[in-house]
Fold these 2 entries.
Entry 1:
Amino acid sequence: MTKKFAVFVEGLTEQEFTIRLLTELAGRHGITFEVVHQNYGRLALSELRSHKTPIVHVLIANCCNDEQVKSQIKDNYQSLKRAGYSLVIGLRDIYPFGHDDIAKLEAGLLVGLPCDDDLPIHIHLAVLEIEAWFLEELNHFARIDKNISMDDVIAGGFDHTQMRASELSHPTETLRKIYQSVGKGYPKNKKSVQRTIDALDYEELYLNTCKKAPSLEKYIHSLEAGLF
């Protein structure tokens, strides 16, 4: 029987990063991705990325809004349980909230959601944005453009020798400034998002970036729980 789990994310960046990260984590194991989008409160099929011999079926729900992640999990929980899903994972950014709001947001993540050992729920906060994870993966900058130097990274607002990207108030804007140093943009459309995701060094993310970004490490652990 094919194992099934669901991942509810807030937007396109989280959707595509999760798909690529799961593909890398799974290695030779086949995954079918069922991608659905939230529209007027309901989830509708967007695309099916099939695998000939899948051992895992992953529902990727793009909620198109950080506030919708928890709501959509709640609304779809019982149908997922009836369909035989083994785990539900959620991912949202903290931004536009700030560091002072993290404890409150974490305390409320599971409030009001079903508590059932047959279908556990893990919800994660990317601190403060998923782009903080990308910033910490320093190898990817040269893949975006060979002319991006570590001096450019520091000048853009991320002194990786002195701080962690999770300390930044708006990681997306910092990433954008670094790319702009060589005339590249980051408008967060499909093309620019895919460019960054393709540039990431996933071995480095798994082995080293996780140690610098605890929120990424927790998210990866949940994805591994779903896969294996």
Entry 2:
Amino acid sequence: MRLRFFTAAAFLVILFATCSSYADSLYLYATPASAGMGGAFGSIADDNAAIIVNPAGISATKRYGTETGYLFTNPYSGSRLDFSAVDSTTSEVGAGFGYYHDIYKLASDYVQRNTYAMALSAGEPGVLSVGVTGRMDLLSGALSGQAESLGYGLIFSPGVSFLNLSIAGLNLTRIRGTRDQLPPRLIDTGISMILHGVLTIAFDAVKNLEVASKNSIDYHAGGELVFVQQIALRGGYAWETAENTKTFSGGIAWKAPRFTLAYTYVGDVMNQSNSTQLVSFTLYPF
């Protein structure tokens, strides 16, 4: 198993280093957990957001879960309904599938997008895990067409179980689609600390490869505090220098043994009328 794993890891690292970089907005396919921590989720990726945010997270935490979520954002008059499932328990290679249906306003026209994403991941929890995600976007309206891309991710624990390091990117390899149809190119590096299984603190720096100026690095910080092993409180802050926006987030989740119910609110510091809200229900049948 170790030989197969490290062979796969070496292959993905080489592929990661040689590919041109394309990626995704951290909030575009966020869950209440990832958004609640301000987008500082690349090195954690312990829920279904891992499918797109960092596929290495699927194997970093052994689990099986199906999730249904809904997002509404008023700045873009947009909404998203999604369904996803991950399984890293029945095979040495973990897998995840996600379907995302979103509608948002672009200038005076609306765009409708159906996204299908498939992720594969391999690794040893608490040591090293790697992953790759393939996605296909079917768009209608102002950006009609089809776009396809690949993304990659890695999560590493440098000899201590409470510390995670990560590097990830979405849409790193463009297969089909125009620049307008694909999300901006981003590279996400992250670090997180999990203290006593109760407190999680995370930081991410995101390089926007579409912006030529020095103001192309976005910063995300967040945390989660768990009470009585069931109630999770989340908070975060994001400074998007490329778009000159600052957002804060707060969320709450009820983590029962067989399911999780979560809610997150994201607000705009400079324009209080702008907000995004997310809810999700995750089921762990096994």
